[in-house]
Amino acid sequence: MRHIWARHSSTLSSLLQTPSVALSSRSCRPASAIALFRTKRAYQTQVARSSLVEEMETVNTTARLAAVRSLMKKNGVDIYVVPSEDSHASEYIAACDARRAFISGFTGSAGTAVITHDKAALATDGRYFNQAAKQLDGNWLLLKTGLQDVPTWQDWAAEESSGGKTVGVDPAMVSSSIAEKLDETVKKVGGAGVKAVSENLVDPVWGDDRPARSNNPVVLLPKKYSGKDTTTKLVDLRKELEKKKAAGFVLSMLDEIAWLFNLRGSDITYNPVFFSYAIVTPDSATLYVDAAKLNDECRTYLDQNKVSIKPYDTLFTDAKALASAAEANTTSGPPKKYFVSNKGSWALKLALGGDKFVEEVRSPIGDAKAVKNDTELEGMRQCHIRDGAALIEFFAWLEDQLINKKAVLDEVAAADKLEEFRKKQKDFVGLSFDTISSTGPNAAVIHYKPEVGACATIDPNAIYLCDSGAQFLDGTTDTTRTLHFGTPSPQEKKAYTLVLKGNIALDTAVFPKGTTGFAIDCLARQFLWKQGLDYRHGTGHGVGSYLNVHEGPIGIGTRKQYADVALAAGNVLSIEPGYYEDGSYGIRIENLAIVREVKTEHQFGEKPFLGFEHVTMVPYCRNLIEESLLTAEEKGWLNESNSQIRKNMEGKFGGDELTRAWLERETRDF
């Protein structure tokens, strides 16, 4: 739905200015953030019901490509790269930054477009092969990333550049490391290299149809939710800068800025962030944001924490001034360097003076944010109890509708009903991503998104997979459960149980401090591997605290980055193994878990040992479990988990006998 939101956000901006829904930027508190998220979601649903069906249709990109190619010639570029990200390296982007989707017609969240004067290619990963094949028109070649003998977009661009051709890219949309590696690859095959093109060549083609940048209000997240004030966070950051003799840190990642200053926004759908930059030095902290977005409470808080405010669009001017000042001081010896995140843009590095004055590092803010404090951890526990209550009520309702009432429900209607149940919960703000509500073969599409008018009717005799999450003031949730309301096949039960065994194996793992998510990924896959089965996605991702549902730098999987960063006590991750039978069914079981220290009989090497505490409070589908495949220990784990769920749900459902009976049945002892 986020791309329908992209198409109509300017209309919503007008809607928000009407007296009935306007939000005052001078009086907006967390409750106002809730209203804002709900207003956006309501409008998304309204728009989606009228026009979402077109989202999976092919877009004719001939005229758009011709216009971009004309601009390429004017800028001396032979190949032009259009990434998915925005200038803040955001995974999920605002409507105004969906350039790759506009130029290619492909609306998936991951992918890179490469345009030459006579060809165009779109590279994406296995989650989106089917969607891209449906949405790309005849102008585009689909590069299925990860498949054997399929080039990466970098290799394809380099191959097209041979013979002295130039590759162009907007330097604000890629990191300097990506630009440098691409330049090296291009030159190896005889290309002229990579050129920074300061004007984004898609924007003039998009023209007046491009949505306006959001001007939604920013709100303060009180300490009762954040657990730590900004002054304390700045002290910790400055200690890191002093230790590494840095001149300062220039922040560009939106979730890092939101976390550091204890502020939240809604400039990107489902992600409570706002467009901003920041510069922190040993004696100053500056937040670059549109001041009109800040209410009196935010301004007072920033002032109390000695944070100055400057306009968002003056960051690059100030960055150049810092570079000039550093250049003037080189007479007394090598200058101290400014730190930028290794995900920061090439444009930012260039503005700060390049390698001479800039060091790219794994962000110390990202590392600090990933280790939740006690308040954030308790918030995660509590919001998952409330979220679990909503999911339990939903699953009980859905089964009753399908089996007892013989209702006909489609995937979108089910997703909307789940949101209704979530809205009743305390401190609910909005969803944390598009709900994946999928029946039968659609459940085999890993990142399936049901669409009004084009989605399936839920089949009670087929597997139903629901992957969903919410934003609460005290935390972020992400839960997947797979159910079957009829009689599952032996193959479905076996696959489900193998996935469940993998989830239990990882949940109960104990490992020494210093272990990475890369090292333990195999624990979740082992039972599938023994059967010659696997899944094409990571096993776990970090999760923010009322922030982005996907949060680095930690995770569990085979990505190189997961081998670089060890798991630490206080991390919150998903554990989500799965199995997908294309054209038939899909299975995924996802819990969120806190990394914590555990007591062991011994302590080899005097290292602490770590384990997981799962916080998701939703039972597993009894109908899909093949008990004969479970060990006594696994049954004991399930019984303990179910007992914990029942205890946390006491008093949650009042006189709702339907939900209480469903919960009792699903959590009975093995």
Automatic annotation (TrEMBL):
Residues 608-669 form the Peptidase M24 C-terminal domain. It comes from Chaetomidium leptoderma. Residues 378-597 form the Peptidase M24 domain. This is Probable Xaa-Pro aminopeptidase P. GO terms for biological process: proteolysis. Its EC number is 3.4.11.9. Catalyzes the removal of a penultimate prolyl residue from the N-termini of peptides. The keyword Hydrolase applies. InterPro entries: Creatin/AminoP/Spt16_N (IPR029149), Creatinase/aminopeptidase-like (IPR036005), Creatinase_N (IPR000587), Pept_M24 (IPR000994), Pept_M24B (IPR033740), Peptidase_M24_C (IPR032416), Peptidase_M24B_aminopep-P_CS (IPR001131), X-Pro_aminopeptidase_P (IPR050422). Its cofactor is Mn(2+). GO terms for molecular function: metal ion binding; metalloaminopeptidase activity. It catalyses: Release of any N-terminal amino acid, including proline, that is linked to proline, even from a dipeptide or tripeptide. GO terms for cellular component: cytoplasm. PROSITE patterns: PROLINE_PEPTIDASE.
